[in-house]
Design brief:
The complex is a heterodimer of chains A (about 290) and B (about 425).
Chain A (H helix, E strand, L loop, with lengths): L3 E5 L3 E8 L4 E5 L12 H7 L3 E5 L18 H14 L5 E6 L1 H12 L4 E7 L12 H6 L1 H6 L4 H20 L4 H11 L4 H12 L3 H4 L12 E6 L7 H6 L8 E6 L6 H4 L1 H11 L17
Parallel strand pairs in A: 3-4, 3-5, 5-6, 6-7, 7-8
Antiparallel strand pairs in A: 1-2, 2-4
Chain B lengths: L5 E12 L3 H12 L4 E5 L12 E2 L1 H9 L3 H6 L3 E2 L2 E3 L12 E3 H4 L7 E2 L2 H14 L3 E4 L1 E7 L5 E6 L2 E12 L6 H6 L4 E3 L3 E8 L8 E7 L2 E7 L5 E7 L12 H7 L8 H8 L2 E2 L4 E4 L2 E3 L4 E2 L2 E3 L14 H18 L9 H25 L4 H16 L5 H8 L11 H8 L16
Classes of the chains: A alpha/beta (about 290), B alpha+beta (about 425).
Amino acid sequence: MDKTMVHLNGDIDYAVTDVGEGPPVLLLHGFPDTAALWRHQIPCLVDAGYRVIAPDLRGFGDSSRPDGVHNYEMLKLVGDISSLLRRLGVARAHVVGHDWGAALAWVVAAGMPSTVDHLVCLSVGHPLAYSAPSLEQRAASWYILLFQFEGVAETLLTRDNWRLFREMMRAHGLDDQTIGAQVADLRRPGALTAALNWYRANRHPRAEIEAVARLPFVRSPTLSIWGSGDVAMLEDAVLASSAFVQGPWRYESIPGGGHWIPLSRPDRVNQLLLEFLGSQETEPAVRRVRRSY
Amino acid sequence: MTKPLEVDAADVDVVVVGGGIGGGAISAALARSGISVEILEIQDEYRDQNRGEALSPWGAGEAERLGLGDALYDADPAPLERWVQWDEIYDPSEAPTVNLLQMSLGARCPYAIHHHRTCESFVAAARAAGATLRMGVRQLDITAGAHPTVSYTCGSTRYQRRCRLVVGAGGRAAPTGRLVGLRQQITSHHWGGSLAVDGLDAWPAAVQAIGTEDRKMFFVFPQNGGRARLYLNYPTEDRRLYAGRSGTERFLAAFDLRCLPPHLRGLLLDARPASTCMNEPSRTSTMERPYTDGVVLLGDEAGTNDTVLGTGLANALRDARILFELLMSNRRWDVGIFEPYLRERTERMRKMNVAAGLLCKLSAEFGLDVKERRRRAWARMRKEPNYMVTLMIAMAGPERVPDFATSDFLVERLLAGDRPRRRAAVPVGTR
């Protein structure tokens, strides 16, 4: 996939795949992926007449990997998306996210409603749906606690040829080729730490104690897709997301899809995207007059 | 009359004799730290040879500590995760399985590496960091001292080097030690042979076999693509059996083992030799002090445990890591800085020799008595897992096991016969 480098506010560079012509669709990958996650979706969306924008998010792939946990706080990532869209001349886009990309997509849709046309979140529910997790969800999220330990998590994941990392990815049904590509990316100096910093900045246990930031309701038409058998993200939080969506909300479950549905069930995901994107009436984009300085 | 050689004289920080696993590893680490390194390798090219290719889990850990994890794993080593203990003491269907990840105490496994590819990977890392590699090196000469010098012939050039330190990593042939008067004492317990074979695609993945039957201790280490390394240990007096022209045939025939399940036995019968069959004595070598002025030895050059333990590569990598750390933390490289190396190595070898001795007595000696002794010992280890700590030394590393792992008491308990039955009480007054 060809990537162009886009320079963003805050001295961050994003590697972006930007193909196709038509209404823009922003694809946001999660951990531990890159825009390559969307390899089955991109040609389909381009053929269907969309402009597809698939960045490597901060800390992943060929994009910048700034040092320091604080550089991966959600607000900074939202800022990246805002800056990226402006640089690419995109005022409004459909947004599709998977895993951490979905968490980010939820916050972007809540905080920047005029920017998000239709919203599709794969595998992960609205952040507030996880503010009181069930015991089962806590157990499924064991790795998030492990990831908090700086240095220790890196060692445990990478020793013995990334044994634990590979085991975790295989438990999600990923094949060796995909895992090999993930390892090749994460092997680069600082790459694994940057990826883990997403968890350290946003899912530290203290986040459960501190006041949860009140997010506005999501106004965009939203489609939540969840693959059954997902061992990390359980269904109830995805279902509970409807409470935080003001606009039309639709839920689709993909039997046996597991966590990595863009790769495990590409045809079904593509079908749902083509069906859903642009299908609902939305509020017209609010035009704000910007003063130029 | 031969043409006179050109002369190339220069200074370099470190000359490493031997571009093997240990030599390659320390060269890469030093070069990446800005030290100028010249690696001297006797082979013209790295060729697949029969040699010990088992890398203990703690050895892989040392490579990772040296920053050579990627280089190690890029050379595609085959993980060995389970040891199915097929052995004449068990029915084939009842052979227990040892989980090697647990035995390593660190959720790591041992690897069957491709020795020559791993050497290439390490020296490539060294060269990428600025080290020079010379292959096909001949007529090596070394003068130890406060300003050591090394000279050698490569191609049509005679090289002369002045350096701060010579690292002797020349392996079993011990070229460096010989040249500077550092001698080893060598003992041997048995003989052993090795053979690479193809056609073992159906061998269970990541499963190693180590067991004893009749007068042979056998090893099967699967690699990738149906390739496997087969090893035998046998009594010294049997060495002629495996020598000579039909040696390879008889070596393979020795793997017609009753203790294996029939399908695996058949698999080995159909295996195709993929190398020559190498036989040599097992070897424990000790050295009082593996260094002198301006020269320090590592790996096999510095002393080995019995080959049966399979820790030669791990030893070399630990040596490389310890020496690298010592060189980085001392500005002047005089002979005194290696004292911690001597102390650590002496203690390490002592512990490992206890483990090697136990393994030899259990599995590399032959006869009905030994068979019973082995059966009893494993029954004891299964009943009381603490007894396993001695053998865990090879997997977990000598510093990870409690002190009693090398106690005479424990080893004696494992090797002892059954307790004698209590005699019936003798009535007083009777003699």
